[in-house]
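Morning. Coffee machine broken again, so started the prediction first thing and wrote up yesterday's gels while waiting. Chain of 322 residues, entered below exactly as on the submission form.
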Amino acid sequence: MAAIALTYEKILKYIDEHIKKEITLGELSKHAGYSQWHLSRIFKTYSPSPIMEYIRNKKLYAAAHEIYAGKKLYDVALDYGYETPAGFYKAFQTVFGCAPSEFKNNNQNYKTRSNIFMNIGSVKNIEELNEVFEFFKLVHADSPTTYKPEEGELYGRKWWIGEFNKNPELLLYIRDGEKICGAIIGWADKGGNVTVADDGVLDEYKDKGIHEALFIEFEKRAKKLGFPGIALGIAEGQEEFYAKLGYMGSMLIQSEKYSVDELKNFLETSCGKNCELTGTNIYDGYVNQLWLRVSILDKELKSKFENELGDCWCQVIVCKGI
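Came back before lunch.
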């Protein structure tokens, strides 16, 4: 499992480093040291998309950034391997729900035909910070990012104001007119990476490329600030979205009933070889934990611990080097 996961990470890194070049399956196969058939099987383990579809989407996400920054559409199309503007426009429309020209105009505050402003901005003041948290109340009723009354508590009001003062670039939103329709907020954790505390879009704005655009912009800003990676915990049903963006997965298994050795024994006897044990811990002296490297798309493992063994709580953590 470890070798397969490392190969997948190696493939993603190669794609990111050569995103403006033509990348073939044969080229990736040679770089990874596997046959094209075996490489496709590895990719299928970790991604909801075939390799070439993943590459096409990554190129379009990267192209959207350059369009957003004001680069000429024709030049962007050529940079990302499209011989004609028509082919680029059609592919872009499929992913983002609007033509590249409309997307570019969004940055100039013109509405698209689907009434969406693709105007990504950073939180500029406390009033906007309040507005973002009101947005998250709509998206996640139990959002951990809602202000808490305890001033000094993690995710409390005073704490978030401190994070806003440190890195406002990590507090992003996207508007449709005056209404926030998507947001992503993060903070610099003690490990030197960025932790995403919350993200999401309103239901009517899903599947329009907005969430993807927010994440790509967030990654770009985090990288510019010098952070090496991003991590976040995800909820059930979000696996394919993060896998599509190239995030890798780990799973935290926790139990107060079963010892670390009992959890390990269940892992070895009942869960097959589709994961790798990367660490153990006893949190606060009584919560027994296993850390596993897994595919984000592997939902069976979580079910085995929570339903077959019982008295366990599982959390999928995704991460990505930037």
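The beta strands are 119-122, 171-176, 179-188, 194-201, 229-234, 248-255, 276-283, 287-294, 313-321. Going to sketch it on the whiteboard this afternoon.
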